[in-house]
Predict the 3D structure of the following.
Amino acid sequence: MDAHSRGRVEDIDPADQWVLNPETGNYELRLDHSAPQRPAGGGSQGAAPTRRTPPAPRSATRSGSGSGPRTRPAPGPAAAGSPADGARPVPGQRRRSAAAAPPDPRGRRKRKQPAPRKKKALLWTAGIMGFVVVGVSVTAYVIYDKLNGNINTVDVGDAANGGSLKDGPINILILGSDVRTGAGNEDYGDRENSTGHADTTFLFHVSEDRTNATALSIPRDLKTEIPDCPTKQPDGSTKVITGNKFTRFNESFGVEGRDPGCTMRTVEKLTGIKPDHFMMADFNAVKTLTTAIDGVEVCLAEPIRDDRSKLDLTAGDHTIMGEQALAFLRNRHGLGNESDLDRIKMQQQFIASMIRKMKEETLGNPKRMYKLADAVTQALTVDSGIGDIPKLTGLGQEIASIDLKNITFATVPVKDNPAEAVKATVVLDETKAPQVFSMLQNDVSFTEVKKKEKEAKSKQEALLKGARADASEVRVDVYNGSGVIGAAQQTLVWLQNQQGVLKSSNQNNAPKQDKTTLEYGPNQADQARTLADLMGLPATAMKPAAEQAEAMQPMKLVLGGDFKGAGTSITPPKKAPDVGQVGADKRICAQ
């Protein structure tokens, strides 16, 4: 029995039947005596009513008839109960099936006095999926089976970093597909590819201390390298799809059967950051999510009239939803230079406004929460590592407390492709892009999180403050733990020929590590500071030993995954370069 029939009488919304249990802090299903229920095993309409308790959370692997993951129907006429007409599967995609809860033999317990309104709102917020960049707002206590059964998953193998969501920074790839399937989408997106392309893409970075987050937009027309990509096939086998050394980013998904894992690998190649998980939504998701929250407010400095998307908006404020919201996000021909970069700015404004709407108006409203949770879980496709309600909710709880002013939207710094006479694509800005990537790699905030900045600065000043040795006196052994072939020899040549560090040697490979480290004795601190200055090593790379080094003993430099080339500083920028970043709390009118 699904959520729409469970406990519904006439116009009673199921969400209204979930009430707070002050003893547990959870919301539980309480059905009114006037709402007769069909027994679990079926029966006539005249059977005596029974009461149900909320279904207990179950693992992703279910037992019994009709349980466990099932394959989504192939393209064609929609099967009964399918979520959307014309929807097409992503390779490897699965949908979970829902099962009814067993009857509660205890009958109905007496309802206790609800918590004060303020406390209730806080409890709602604590249980909400905080990851609202694409409207992912799911509660573990709202009709668990139905929502869990909505979620689509894709096995992307080792393309996802996975691991614990409670330790370290979190990097989520938000992928918007331009697939045209679904009623009303004929005028948008990819007209040939049934799975679409990588359209709107964000790398959402959440800091280790959960005080700030950065949503980094990746332009679809950016020329970059797509690496070889192993993809799971419907029969369970793995096929390696050949990469492309220099092509548009949006071809990382859909083309030649590439799945979201291929986009994740492309992002890692581009930024040096391996996504932990991905979330993907298509055009239908935009329409259903914006309708579920009763529209998103946008502001225009100039009117937009575009015949292709049929978008016709005057200058000023508008609340848009459904088809109009999709046209707003897809439009670029009504903008100044009709570029994808201008469209990205509008998309960032739209998503920031959606976040504000959800935090300010949707949280604490049971009807809106149920409507949104149902829409989101039907629209969402995720990797198997977060493919159920408890995992999605756990992710949300990790980041739900981030203040809007500390959520920053930025775009990968790019410039026009110099190889093109007619400008159609872009390439990385070789100066600013590495700075932005370095900030995310080193978990440096784009926002003014004062306490964190002060602590990092004090630590660096303490370790790097003091006398320096002459470069000719520096003794160091160089090891390669970066995974980059020849990195140690490249660094050695640079140190000896360009920096005068002649007492240095190449010790070849070391076990692979993420960060570069420099180990030294207390009596070598002046040498360590000199080498740190030359190489741009951060304070976190400095590893002083407890014991003094022996005479003539060299320091130990191990190059890590943050190595970008000899002579390239490893220290991240102290503050963000100006790349036009905007805080989620700022209300800005699109130009």
Notes: The radius of gyration is 27 Å. The first helix runs from residue 117 to 126. DSSP finds twelve helices and 29 strands in the chain.
